[in-house]
Amino acid sequence: MNARRSSTVFEKIHTGTLARGDADYLVLPDGRSINCRELLSLSAGLRGKVSAVAKDIRGNAGIMLKDPALYIPALIALWSLGKGAAVLDPSATDQKLRKLIEVAEIGFILEDLGDCAGASDIARISISRADSSLYGDLYGVENAIEDHVPAIFLFTSGSTGTPKCVPLSLSNIESNIDDFYGKIGVGASDCILSSSPVFYAHGLYNCLLSSLFLGAKSVYNGVLNLMNAENLISLANRFPGSVYHCTPQMMQILLLISGKTRQTLPKFKHVICGTNRLEPGLKSRFEKAFDCVVTQQYGMTETLFISVNLEKQIRAPESVGIPVACEIRIFDDFGNPLPQGAQGEIGVKSLSCFGSYYRQPEESAKSFRDGWFITGDRGCIDEDGYLSIVGRSKEIIKKGGFNINPHEISEVIMKDPRVMDTATISMPDRLYGEEIYSLFSGTAREEELMSLCRSSLPLSHIPKRILRLDKIPKTSTGKTALDELRKACAEILAGDENPASSKAVVNASAETKSGMGLN
Fold first, then answer.
1. How many helices (H) and strands (E) does the chain have?
2. What span, in angstroms and rounded, lies between the C-alpha atoms of 400 and 487?
3. Which of 214, 248, 439, 459 minimizes the number of CB atoms within 10 Å of its CB?
4. What topology is assigned to 397-508 in CATH?
5. Per-residue model confidence as pLDDT tens digits over 40-56
6. How is domain 1-23+35-147 classified at the CATH fold level?
7. What angle is formed at CA 329 by the lines to CA 328 and CA 335, rounded to 5 degrees?
8. Which residues are bridge partners to 124 per DSSP?
C-alpha cells in the first residue's frame, strides 16, 4: 500500500467518537443500543482482521451486510487502512453482484451473510458482532484514507442497465452534512431516526453517516412496512424530538397507522421528506395528524443534499427549496442555461459532488458538463430562488424509495424465447408512489413470466402485473413510446375494474406489498 497522509476529517470523527465514550451511537429496531466505545472497539477488531486477510489484495473493499450495526465499524476500519468501501445490496443477484464488483473494482468483500451465493471467486471476510475476537482498542490513526479520494462508493441504475458507481470522499460528505444540518439547526445533541435500507444512500447517508459526522445518535427502525410501523412510533416516542428522514410512501403508511394505534403520536423535531415528489395534500394531512411541519429536501446519490425548503412551506408547499451550499441552474435540452421561471433540466454544481462516476468516462460524459451534474430531473426556479421539480427525464422507477432500473426487469422477461418484445414502466400508486408494470408481445404465458421474475429478481423489483399487448408501441426513432405504453396500461387496468369493457389478457401477480419493505 502506498503511504498516505493522515485524514483530518477521519481524525475529527475518531476523536469526537472517542470523546463520547458510553453515549449511544446507534439504537437498533429492538430497542437495544450500542455505545461509542463499543463502536470503536469493534472497528479496531475489524481493522486487524481486514489487515491480516486483505493486505495483499488489490482493489477497493465491498461491504455486504445485513446487520445495520456493522456498517459504521466496517467503514471506520477500512478508512483507517486507507481503503474505500463500496456498499453492496445483500439481496443482489449473482449477475448484478458481479457487475457491481467490476465497476467498483472490488478486491474483497466484508459480509455477515454466512454461506452467500454468487461471485464465489472473490475473497470474502466474514464478520459478526457475536465474535468476541473482533473487539480491540482503536486509539491511534495510521494510514487513514485521504480527505479527497473515494471513501465510499454507492451505486445508481444506469440507463443501459449497467450500474453507475458514485465515489464520495470524506470531504464531500463532511461539507454537505455541515451545510445541510447547519441550515436546519441539527447537531450533536440531536437524534436521527431512519426506516430506510442501510445499503441505500437514504438510510446510510441521511441517518448513519450524518449521525457519525455530527456526533449525534442514530435510531434505526428497520425498513418500514405496515407490520413494523407501530415499532417506529414507539422508538420515536422513546426519543422525542427526533429528526425523521422519510419518503412520501412512509408518510402514507404512518398516516394509515395513526388512526389505529393506541400509542401517543410522536413529536418530531423535524420530518424531512425526500426521494419522491411530495403531493401538497399528503403533506397537509400528515402535518395535521402529527402536529408537525414537513420539510422537503432534494438530493441525489451523486450530489448528496441539494436543497431544502425551510421558509416557504405554506406559500409553495410543492417546492424542494433553496440550494444547500451549491449552485442550481436550469438547462434546455441543448445544454444552454434558461431564464428564471423556465422549465428544463436541473443542473447542480457542488463541493459535495466528486465530479464524475468511478472510472466510467462514457457515463460521466453524459451527466457531467463543465463542473455541472445534470440530474435527469426537470424543474424550474422562482423569483426567490426556490426550486420545484416538475418531472423526470430519466426512466428510473422510484417504488417506495427503491430506485429500480426497468431494464433489469425487461432483461429477465426477454429470457423467455416466446417473448417478442417487452418494456417495463411505472404507474402512479397511492402507497408506493410508483408501481412496476411490465408489458410484452409474444406467445408466452403471463404466469410463467411472473414466476421467472420471482426467481430472478429481488422482491422490490417484481412487477405488480405483467400485461400482454399485440405489440410494444415505438417512436419514429425506434425507441419505446412510454406515453403510449402508459396509456395502454391504464386502459387495461381500467378494463380490469369493468371486465365487460376490456378484451385484454392480463396476469395479476401475487400481492407483494405486505412483504416488501419501504425505503
1. 14, 26
2. 22
3. 459
4. GMP Synthetase; Chain A, domain 3 (3.30.300)
5. 999 999 999 999 988 88
6. Rossmann fold (3.40.50)
7. 140
8. 109
